[in-house]
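Trying the structure run again after the queue cleared.
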Amino acid sequence: MKKSLLILASISLFLLLCSMACDETTQPDNKNDLTGLVENETILNEITKEYNDNDISFDFANGVSFKVTRLNNYGAEKQSVSISQIGGERYFNSPNNLVFDLSKMKGSLVFELEQKLPANLVAEDISVIIYSPGTSEVELDAEEIAFTYDKISGNMTAIFAAPSDNPIIGSVKKDSPVLQSGGGKYSRVAISWTRREDLAEGAEAKIIEMPFYEQPGNSCWATCAAMIGRAYAPVNDREKEIRIIDFVKKLGHSSLDDGIGLWDFSRNLPSSLKSITGVEFEASSFVSKTNLLREIRNKLDQNIPVLLNLRYPGVGAHVVLVVGYEVDLVSAAKISVKLIYHNPQNQANDGFYKKADYDWLVKDKYATEAFQILYADQAVPTTKALYTLGMPLKNYFGELSFIVPIKRQSDGRIIDWHVQMQYDNSVSQSYVWIYDYGNVKVEVIPDSADKIKLSLPVYNATKTSKSLHLDVRAYDYDAGGLIFEASNMKSYNPGTNFIEAVIPLSELVDNKKQIDVMMKFALWDGGNYLDGYIIRFKLAPKKQIEFISMITVSGNHLTTCPDNSSEAEGNISIGAQKMMLTGEGKKYSGTSQDNSSSYRLTRNVVLEYDSEVNPKYIKYLSIEMITEILYDNVVQGTANTKIELRDIEIGEDDKAGTQLMLYRYESDVCKYIIDTQYKYRPTAKDGCSVDLLSYQCNSESQMYISIK
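Done. Tokens:
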């Protein structure tokens, strides 16, 4: 049954609405000229005629005809009428899309549209819309123009008004359109169609192996751009650094939760990909579902994967990387095709090569909503990397953190504070370092940080396990020169893996000055570079060292009680368990406390080297322990132990990398002792006190000192 020309559907178009997955953002250009021609748009043909209360016809060589009749335009203003066919249109630029511009008019007129299409098309595979080429932050106004189509002759006819605020004849538009970027008139008509026979032709299945990344926040679009960018990197520079946050920054987004809009996806994202890879990219928009599917298959058949910008079921606006398809059935009554794609959400590590029915993927699409694809102008290189290395950011997959041990005031326990990267578009490197708690920015990593903790995601986008090695190298950015390097070989299963490691900061820091560190992470398959990135950070001079010690000597003690006294021999042990000493150059000192229900222990340590750089001696070392004995939280007595040492030589055997580990035994221990003191004083008057009379070294005497 043919549709009446006067009973027309009107649907307001929301292109890529704000959603929980990939929210939309601003996209108008800065010149407010989106209703005119933009870059890559051309006028393929233009017909101009005068309307003087007469019937006129605009007949294009492609079989499209626009008619202005006196009957439909009674009382309309006499004017010059120009209709232009647009090539390379900003949105609808793919084959089987014809776009005509009707903006060059003083006033609105009613047009009759006729076109000779192929016979036997399926009506749902034909789309006719009129829209405003201006864009805004969240929507692009468009209306569906109802049409009649004769399957035998292939004739398609429709009627509409343009340029107009209300182009649908016979409809009452309740809400006035918001003027956008210089004009909100509906002034462009897009016609698209697809033959089911075209969808039925070709291979039944296709898959292109492609690299994978996981999205931080709602940056699905930037993550998919990184996937396709990494795949095309070998065209010009295989080792090109390609980071998700770089795409986010290039589009001027202040947050990883900012999504992408129609204009950014069409114009700015392709140019960003080109600037990074040197490869040409472009995007196309589609109102017709079948036309979109046909073009996706065409690209995949040419070994060109595509980014698909769609309304993902249950999610909202979202971008996936389409890498293949499987055709079950294509007929006039039904299209049954599965798309194969990488979903950067990677929920439950299930983002690789997902399969979904095409009908399901597009089921939430509005009648006039445009879905988009983005693709390169050439086939993806066969030498692309299929193993990729993720860069963890704060709160997102994995860990790349500086660890700062601190003492918790509530219970005295040592806990780890993390300093992590967070996206920031206001700085050149696109991220800043911040504390886990309180979002406090860290300009310089404090000297209290003791290590870098790594849990880096490695994505294997193949079907088999692979042994790869990760190289980590650190350089002094200002002075030049390698200051640290390490390598790790590991087998990675298909899917998401993690490589975990710890880098002691003692191997990077300088005792005299702050250093600007450039650290490179690189994933290799033998001599074949796969993926990697660079991080930068500033390290404070090492004003803190980790100190551990245990010294034991023998001593003669005098115990004095109210009614008697006695002497006895016994060992005296004094030590420190993982104390942090602060200082600068040659001198360091520190205090620590250990508490329990039976005692309160305070340790004081003073350490002095003979030289700031490459010391040969510990010139002076003092260790003091003050122990309060408790019962029912009441002090019963206090013990004071102190030992002083000097001129402890540091030999090559005492060095383990940047750590000092000194062991001395028996009589050698006493060579370094200046003085040893011990006394115990009870709180109660009738208690017994203890004093050290003398000390000596015997077979049980030992000294252990660890410094790093």
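The CA atoms of residues 86 and 154 lie 23 Å apart. Worth checking whether this holds up in the mutant runs.
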